[in-house]
Design a protein that fits this description.
two-stranded antiparallel sheet; 9 strands; 48% helix; binds zinc ion
Length: 389
């Protein structure tokens, strides 16, 4: 069964407007949230594209003013957030448009949090009750507009920010970091190069998979995760093959949003390893998850087999066994030209002890169905470096 058109207004988990061309509603969204001078936060690569100026013009042509802040790294750090807060105050802005891939969205959300706080950013790291320290009235309203389909940060209440002094990625969390309005417009993703489409799409798959396999009781999230994974199976190869396939681009934006909605249930060892590797080697987050995926699935096999078989049936794979699913992951990866081992992206085993220790301590480790020891993380990492499945 196909849909008449891929357009929708959803209020779950937040206010989402999906469909081709819907970024044209931006000025109305800005006004709806009571902003008159938002600051658009994005990364420097996107800022140089006409798409960003066109988006700013949507505001300006409606009688609003709109600033631009783009001095952020691909893994945004604490300094980037401080600079963004300074730009927000210097321009007298009253809200944030978080625009871009994971870096633009996460930086925008963290800046929105920090514009009205007296404490330093790291005081709001997602540990215990730290979020209660936030002055809620000081959090700026957020509109999120993703231009990649992977992170799903537009439906998340947290940002991943690199602590440049400690060389770790920290999760900054507050419920008010959930954007008030999300625009999912596939036109904004059609220019994405195929290798980024592939890597970010595999990140979306890893979110759906890890959420599904996390051991906590949350059937709602599991329902979302299996359909999210199916959308990746059906549409990611199409989006990579033909970047202007609007149906595939729309469905991947939705699969990405679903992955992040589902991972309220937890992530797992793919992310527990991808976070330290991203911080230590500045490698692409989605690419890391894509490479790590089969090694982690294999390591979790004894506890996730039944669930994966059920997923494989739902996804209508030819071989619905665990091995059939694993083979599908491997075929998908090679179809998308994702490397099979970490050594192919110049990561070796030199820092294996540090990587394993950081993985054990990563917040995502808590959602893995097996509580891996440092030695077990080290072994998974070595396998992924060498390509030994
Ligand atoms: Zn991820």
């Amino acid at each position: 069964m196909s849909y008449e058109n891929l357009s929708g207004n959803w209020n779950y988990p937040n206010n989402i407007r999906t469909g081709e061309g819907r970024v044209s509603e931006l000025a109305a969204c800005v006004k709806e949230l009571g902003m008159s001078s938002p600051l658009l936060v994005t990364d420097p690569g996107l800022a140089s594209l006409p798409m960003v100026q066109d988006t700013i013009d949507l505001c300006i042509n409606s009688g609003l003013s709109c600033g631009l802040f783009s001095q952020i790294k691909s893994n945004p750090n604490g300094e980037n957030i401080r600079d963004g807060v300074a730009a927000y105050h210097a321009g007298n802005h009253d809200g944030i448009i978080a625009f871009g891939g994971g870096s633009g969205l996460d930086a925008g959300k963290a800046i929105a949090l920090m514009v009205g706080q007296d404490r330093p950013l790291w005081d709001f790291e997602d540990i215990g009750d730290n979020f209660l320290r936030v002055n809620e009235a000081g959090v700026a309203p957020i509109i999120a507009i993703p231009t990649t389909a992977g992170t799903g940060s537009e439906v998340g209440r947290a940002s991943v920010i690199t602590d440049e002094q400690a060389h770790v990625k920290r999760i900054i969390f507050h419920p008010k970091m959930l954007p008030s309005i999300v625009i999912l417009d596939p036109n904004l993703t059609i220019g994405l190069p195929s290798h980024i489409t592939a890597a970010t799409g595999m990140d979306a798959l890893s979110h759906n998979l890890e959420a599904l396999c996390s051991p906590f009781y949350h059937p709602l999230a599991e329902g979302i995760a299996i359909e999210g994974a199916r959308l990746v199976k059906d549409y990611l190869p199409r989006a990579v093959k033909d970047g202007s396939d609007i149906e595939a681009r729309t469905q991947m934006l939705v699969a990405s949003m679903m992955g992040a909605t589902a991972f309220q249930k937890g992530l797992g060892a793919m992310h527990a390893l991808a976070h330290p590797l991203g911080a230590l080697y500045d490698a692409h987050h989605g690419l890391l998850n894509a490479i790590l995926m089969p090694y982690v699935l294999q390591a979790n096999r004894e506890v996730i087999e039944e669930r994966i078989v059920r997923l494989a049936r739902y996804m209508d794979l030819e071989d619905c066994s665990f091995d059939g699913f694993l083979n599908w992951v491997l075929e998908m990866r090679s179809l998308l030209k994702i490397p099979h081992s970490l050594s192919q992206i110049n990561i070796d085993t030199q820092q294996q002890t540090l990587v394993a220790t950081m993985a054990t301590e990563d917040p995502s480790a808590g959602g893995n169905p097996i509580k891996f020891t440092t030695d077990q993380y080290q072994q998974i990492f070595i396998n992924a470096v060498k390509g030994e499945l």
